[in-house]
Amino acid sequence: MLAMNYRGPYRVRTVHKAEPEIEHPNDAIVRVTRSCICGSDLHLYHGLVPDTRVGSTFGHEFTGIVEEVGPSVQGLKKGDAVLVPFNIFCGSCFFCRKELYGNCHNVNPEATAVGGIYGYSHTAGGYDGGQAEFVRVPMADVGPTVIPADLDLDDAVLLTDAYPTGYQAAEMGEIAQGDTVVVFGAGPVGLFAAKSAWLMGAGRVIVVDHIEHRLEFAKTFAQCEVIDFRTVDDMALHIKRMTDWLGADVCIDCVGCEAAGSALQRLTGIKLKMQAGAATVLHWCINAVRKGGTVSIVGVYGPTFNAVPIGNALNKGLTLRMNQASVKRHLPRLIEHIQAGRIKPSEVISHRFALEDIADAYHMFSSKLDGMIKPVLVPRG
Ligand code: NAD
Ligand code: ZN
């Protein structure tokens, strides 16, 4: 089969690879119908995630058709169209019973923090991902959800990660009626966080980025105010000025470690205003939120990342919340939002690629060139 193949930082290609097989009675094999590239894949692509092995196939956002099921699988059958949450989880351990599917104890037992994620390095369990024609889906009765007949495939694939993650980012912000919410990052995750913030009662939503076409899109997709951070000298001061000197009630980090910024700088030569070596966005969130406010973090950081201004957070009495999204927990509500016409997730899809063009797809998504918001891989023919 054709599959994306990691060759080292900034080098990916399409290769022929053996099709996956049932390895365990609970497995299913799924033929991929849509697969996205995520901002999280860029951390792998930029070589920032430990134990990302040459030869592995990325892809944790995919839909597909069930081709084959192992003998223990009860809830799925050949031919079912499914969306597959990015978390691989058992559904029954201590953490899964608390619906913390990103922290499942059974799928990646050697790790101290993260659970299992498709196509996300050996740090996240060493599973191959869905940027391929076929993928092995472990614990097939637990993660995959049969796609409702009235749901568009392009909307369904965004339910595997980007939309639930943005939604959970807003949910962890514990938004109260009328709150001012600042979302850092106008990528797909930030856009969904902004949109969700309104549905949770926010009175004002401000999105921060430095990519003009994404800020323009944020204004229409999420009806928010925007800040181009290249025009701001002191972010915390700027937000305070906008909020009667209180600061924002909630700040949400949908950026993560700075590779996205530094990669853009490397590829385009655009000079970015960033604090040297620091987690710019974490500083901005902690310093721009009001005393007693909440900072919600879904942007991904390396496991040992520690450049956090924790003293400021303590002195301000902040609540800090963060996690990998627990995708499955949010699906019923988010499907309802789509069916009720409150959101059309696929509006964020800006580019379509065939698997054969994987190198171009990664390059363009990493550099955010040509109006890039969200790329989706669609099988040829
Ligand atoms: P993306 O790369 O498309 O978007 C990131 C955006 O952040 C870009 O538009 C970039 O210009 C902007 N940015 C860079 N530096 C910034 C700064 N200092 N201030 C404001 N904006 C800045 O990525 P995405 O797909 O939207 O994902 C966003 C983050 O969410 C990534 O870190 C990704 O790994 C993470 N993520 C987390 C989870 C989870 O479960 N916690 C799931 C999916 C994605
Ligand atoms: Zn993702």
From TrEMBL:
InterPro entries assigned to the protein according to its UniProt record, in alphabetical order: ADH-like_C, ADH-like_N, ADH_Zn_CS, GroES-like_sf, NAD(P)-bd_dom_sf
Keyword Ribosomal protein (UniProt): no
Gene3D superfamilies: Medium-chain alcohol dehydrogenases, catalytic domain (3.90.180.10), NAD(P)-binding Rossmann-like Domain (3.40.50.720)
Record's keyword terms, sorted: Metal-binding, Oxidoreductase, Zinc
Residues annotated as domain Alcohol dehydrogenase-like N-terminal: 25-142
Residue ranges constituting the Alcohol dehydrogenase-like C-terminal domain according to the UniProt record: 188-264
Cofactors that this protein relies on: Zn(2+)
Family the UniProt entry places it in: Belongs to the zinc-containing alcohol dehydrogenase family.
Protein name: Glutathione-dependent formaldehyde dehydrogenase
Lineage: Bacteria, Pseudomonadati, Pseudomonadota, Betaproteobacteria, Burkholderiales
